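Lab notebook, bench 4. Still working through the backlog of constructs that have no structural model yet. Next entry is a single chain of 347 residues. Request: give me the structure tokens for it.
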Amino acid sequence: MFDQIMGFSAKLFQIRIRSVWIPRILLYSFVLTGLLLPSIYESFLSELWTFLYNSRFYRFSGFETLETVLCYIILEPFYTYKFGRNPTLRIDVRGSKQKASGSERPRIPKMRRPSKRMGEMLIYIAPLLLMDFTMIKKFAGVPVADIRESGGYSLPLVNSSSGDISSSFLLPTIHNFTLGSPLQLTRALPAEPPSSRRLLLELINSFFIYDALFFFIHIAFHRIKFLARIHMPHHTHTEMHPQVTNKLSVAERLSLVLFANFSLNIIGSHVLTRSAFVPLFVYLLVEVHSGLDLEWSYDKLIPFGWGAGSRVHATHHRTGEGAFAPFFTWWDTGLDWIDGRQDIKSQ
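Model written out:
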């Protein structure tokens, strides 16, 4: 009897631990307190920003590129390991040999070891570092004088318009290359930290904008012939797996980065928002391409079915249609509604 009670208790405990409501409550509590009670996080954000503001590494112009690469080389191997060890979680076993074999443990699709992917990493980093070292970084809340100084320009004379630099990111400025400043190595930062409310609202808005931008370009990648050639490498696989995340042409990879940058810059995001955006962005990209149906995946945490997730994106890779938005579902829902209306009219 005691063993039965203990067994039942253990199962109940496992059910509770595995319940998606635990991370949901934690996530919602953090977001709500951050939005409604920003004073709770004020001291932490102030101390964090003071540390980062005085960090030479954080001021390095290539910081965001290195942060992106670091997040990817941590997250992707984690998902790859989980993919290899958990065949029951794999969504998209499509290889004909695997289907025919009837094996309970389907074979792992061909993937490359990290040591064999250094060339891939260099191809990814090179164009980004080129921009980092040649273009002046322009962030919201940074005085133009500080932007000029970081770009190797001297302060203009009083009442002189020569050598003016716009603080707008829409007007890019090349670094002033001199012997004393041969490359754009530093970035000017705002003096004040953001509130938790500003940080969270900027994150929400930037992901909303990015999702919309990529939704439209993704449709173009599939329906315009010369763009389809650019997108083709992303669909050359037999089964969805985590390494598909970075299986991109150089042009498409750059479009991801430029759209992410635009989404942050257009709303005047604080630099700390950008630093928080990067790991979330990489996590979402790897998650939707993981080929795994995980219990705590982000689409199960977001309410009302707004999150697309790995199952929806695997369907897109399987059919080449629908689920064009990378992270959320509302744009595709709208497209389905429009297509449905057009079908009704044509009947």
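Notes after review: Residues 1-17, 94-101, 157-162, 341-347 have pLDDT under 50 and may be disordered. Residues 196-223 form the longest helix (28 residues). Flag for follow-up if needed.
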